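thread from #wetlab-drylab

HS: before we spend reagent money on co-crystallization trials with iron/sulfur cluster, can we at least see a predicted complex? here's what I'd submit
DV: go for it
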Amino acid sequence: MHISFDAIFVGAGPASLAGALMLKRLAKSNPALSGISVAVIEKAPNLGDQSLSGATFDARALDELLPDFRDLDPPLGPRVRHESLSFLTERRRIPVPIVPPPMSNRGKYLMSLAEFVKWLGRQAEREGVEIFTGEAADELIFDSRGAVIGVRLKGKGFDKEGRPKQNALPPTDVGARVVVLGEGARGHLTKRLVAAKGLDAGCTPQGYAVGLKELWEVREDRFHKGTVINTMGWPLALDTFGGSFIYHVRDRLVAVGLVVGLDYRRGSIHPFELLQRLKEHPYVSRTLEGGRLVSYGAKTIAEGGWFAMPRPYGDGFIIAGEAAGILDAMKLKGIDLAMKSGMCAAETICEALAADDPSESMLSSYEARLKKSWVGKAMWRARNFHQGFHRGLIPGMIHAALQFVTCGRGIVRRFRVAEDALCMRKMSGRGGDSPAEFKPDNRITFDKLTCVFASGTKHEEDQPCHLKIEDISICNGICRTEYGNPCQRFCPANVFEMVEEADGVKRLHLNPANCLHCKTCDVKDPYRIVTWTPPEGGGGPNYKGM
Ligand code: SF4
């Protein structure tokens, strides 16, 4: 291998950056480790360009990592001063008298994850971490015993058929004594590693939601800094898990988002259009009237919780943050937990490198460390939360209340639910689902292509398609009759389109250049034949202030 490091963190999110920074710092106080090399590899062209979250932020992990962070000009916005929870019907709002304490955000910071990641990256670089952006980690490299010994970076400059163009760069192997996978929810390397090594044996299937977010600049008189509004109900039907958020962040910027549980059953569900319909509600539209759309994006959220967490370590590797399913499903918060998991990984790697033994037995202390910390406590308290909503909002609320009074247990020790991909009902059973027509007004509501433009998404068009479909005849045949090609609806970026061809038959066409890298297709395709892989490094969304 041309290059190698003592530790490589894949994906420059809060888990990796906090972990890399802490590892360098710990190494400085250990003479046996002085001068260790630590790198972070990120597919986005610049730090933060592909980071997206709500986001309210609890600074607990940041306080532990950088106790003097307030002197370092962090891009934290205002603290939450007002918050409310409401139930929406199509035209009305019913306020919930109190925000349940476990869901409260009062006192937390409102911020842009993209800006926070840029800032945290600068702190890590100051500590000596090397950060490589615009490079997609494509594969893990194993030795003959099956231990992870590095990552293969995707080549660049290959055409649609995979032939090298002028100035093509072949894949590069980068060696590491320990690789930390911090690539976020449904990470493609993590998915393959978990399957290859059976790391999820005995686990509940990981459950996901898709979160869609728009950032708006609103009129001065519609802006209320530090206000957080959460809603349940419309535009989601009672059988679908999810809810919305409206955060008044700073400088007249308001984040509007919708989270939809991907265990939904009706193939007609169209998360993007549901977000547009949410904005038509009088309670929401009055904030946005006269404003302008600044940015748009989407991501999957790993909500399965404690029982869905795979074993997060093995020979030569650790899995951190949302890639390992680390998230407080009750609060729907993961940034502080992800950072803490990266810090637990750093402590573990420090011990392993000092002993010159990055084996599974040395790295196993990571899981114990994590579960003993406040991360473990938060996840244990929410261990059955997401699964409790599997049968819809009303049973979910009852389960949530019971879990609250039984410290997370509820009526069963452990809920068992099916994989999200298998939850969708066929149209032939219990009546078809015909999607209702939606027409954007181009003031408050828009079509997908307008929103994809707002996401700043760009890919090199002449490259091999990064979405792998095992058997496209399923899409053009049985999926049409059984599910009505739901990919056209669950994809928030119009990547999947059924296009009528010259013979009058509709067939699947892909627009991979639109892809937001949200991985919803990888999670929700009912035949499990779609696999998301990274495109050439540097391609993808370019979020502003998300
Ligand atoms: Fe998300 Fe898949 Fe659509 Fe890309 S193709 S935007 S990963 S659903």
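DV: The first helix runs from residue 14 to 28.
HS: ok that's useful, forwarding to the group
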